Amino acid sequence: MREVVHIIQTPPFWIKTPPLSLTYLKSFLEKKGIVVRITDLNNILFHRTSSTPKRWLTLNRAFEQDLFNQAQKEHPGVFNSIYGHLKKASAIGFSLLGRNAPFTFSFAKEIKERFPKKHIIFGGPHTLFLEKEGKLNSCYWWVIGEGEIPFYTLISNTPISNSRKKIYRFEEIEDLDTLPFYDFYPLRPKEYSGVLPLLSSRGCPHQCTFCSERLLSRTFRHHSPRYIIEQIKFLQKRYRLNNFVFCDSLINYKRAWLHEFCRLLIDHKLHVKWEAQMRVEKGFPQELAELIKRSGCYNLFIGLESGSDRILQCMNKGFTRSDAINFFKTLRTQNLHFEVSLIFGHPDESENDFRETLQFITQHQRDIPKIAQVNPFVDYLGAFKRAPYPTQEAKMRVSKFLKIVSAKKIKHTKSFINNLVY
After folding, report:
1. Tens of pLDDT along 391-400?
2. What pLDDT score was predicted for residue 161?
3. CA distance to 8, 23, 115, 322, 341, per residue, from 39 (Å)
4. For the chain: N or C, fewer Cβ within 10 A?
5. In whole angstroms, what is the distance from residue 203 CA to residue 215 CA?
6. CA of residue 187 relative to chain centroid, distance
7. Sheet holding 35-40, edge to edge
8. 397 and 354 in contact (C-beta within 8 Å)?
9. What is the DSSP code (8-state) at residue 180?
10. Could you give the CA distance from residue 131 to residue 154 in angstroms, rounded to a whole number?
């Protein structure tokens, strides 16, 4: 059996956990009999540079544009090692995000100059936005949406150049439980933060108007609770780690699913610690909050976004501020820690809507343990043509909000302020 695929995660990217995209593709393709090599170049270079986590994670165009040239100059041994491995690969895959696109395209160009016959496949969320902008280079192959099926289809073509189809769109796995369990080999999870990533679902069943997630999948699918329990057991045994973070858009897409999952964690005595993103839910039962706490949940990230009912409706959030505070109080009764995110400057947000959000946060500061993220509205989807986004007014509202929460000593994560805009 010969190695035919090399998949690389380029920087800058999240540094807390090993990248799931590489591990999912590796386990899926290996089950099909394909030899796969993965390289987390993001992690390698982060640990070899003098960059702080804040610089690595903060949007900075100058840093991102220059990172490839700087890294190749400072760490030639790292790149020579990768180029040596690439000699054996017939296909090379990259996961594209907005931030790592400059590095990735420079790297791909360098690979093409060294190995003109190598086939390069791009996947990841950023491919969708590049297609909307008409920027998909026909020299490469492109995967929009999840990558397992199209990647395998391309690899199965021998050679890949026989495939006239250059763009693969939303070829999705129907039953996620058919996927093999993944590990992170040859990556070493303990070199990250000791927290292992999980994904219990793909896509999002909701349609928040400001969120790009609704365009990244065609259908919403989820693993069974028992599958996730067995995946956790597999990773626990292999790595002797008990901290997990769910990378799903939301963990409470079905109460019955969440109830069964938490119950299984308790019944199997796995003693894990976990965190996830959760959606505000009307009438959330206290017994389920208690079960979540007992199962080992130590933090929840909740997209509140606004304290104005009118803006929540414009965003299609599906709840009111009254629903939100009742939900928060239910979580608080079980001492569940959570953090909320906020967006200011939505195209329909008035000054009065902004004041309502200020009032909501200050009035209920005892019910909200922490504000995790504050950003001005950014029109990622190109749906609003009224003004360039983020607007100056939105930026001013973020600044005003921060002065108020600082003065009132409301807890907030400073490194996640304006972290979604340049």
Report:
1. 999 999 999 9
2. 62
3. 5, 10, 18, 47, 32
4. N
5. 9
6. 19
7. 35-40, 3-9, 91-95, 119-123, 141-144, 167-169
8. yes
9. P
10. 19
pLDDT tens digit sequence for 218-247: 999 999 999 999 999 999 999 999 999 999
What are the tokens at 374?
A: 């504050």
Distance CA 137, CA 135 (A): 6
Of the candidates 69, 126, 80, the one whose C-alpha atom is nearest the C-alpha of residue 100 is: 126
**pLDDT value at residue 252:** 96
Per the DSSP assignment, residues forming a β-bridge with 195 are: 243
Highest mean pLDDT among 5-9, 135-139, 213-217: 5-9
Query: Please, are residues 173 and 32 in contact by the beta-carbon 8 Å criterion?
Result: no
Note the pTM of the prediction, 2 decimals: 0.94
Q: CA-to-CA distance for 298 and 283, rounded, in angstroms?
A: 22
Q: How far apart are CA 15 and CA 229, in angstroms?
A: 25
pLDDT of res. 160: 67
Q: What is the pLDDT of residues 345-362, one digit of tens each?
A: 999 999 999 999 999 999
- Give me Rg for the CA atoms of the chain: 22
Write the CA distances from 396 to 362, 373, 387, integer angstroms. 18, 16, 16
Q: Which two tokens stand for residue 147?
A: 């990558």
Write out pLDDT tens, residues 159-196.
Answer: 666 667 899 999 999 999 999 999 999 999 999 999 99
Residue type (1 letter), 308:
S
Asked whether the CA dihedral 234, 236, 239, 244 is positive or negative, the reply is: positive
pLDDT at 293 over 50: yes
Task: Taking the CA atoms of 231, 128, 278 and 243 in sequence, report the sign of the dihedral they define.
Answer: positive
Question: Residues 153-158: contacts with CB within 8 Å, 24+ apart?
Answer: 154/91, 154/119, 154/121, 155/4, 155/5, 155/29, 155/34, 155/91
Give residues with Cβ within 8 angstroms of 143, minimum separation 6. Answer: 121, 122, 123, 127, 150, 151, 168
What tokens does 283 get? 């009438």
User: H helices then E strands: how many in the chain?
Assistant: 16, 14
Model confidence at 1, pLDDT cuts 50, 70, 90, reads very low
Euclidean distance between CA atoms 357 and 362, whole angstroms: 9
Angle of the 76-86 helix axis to the 61-74 helix axis, nearest 10: 80
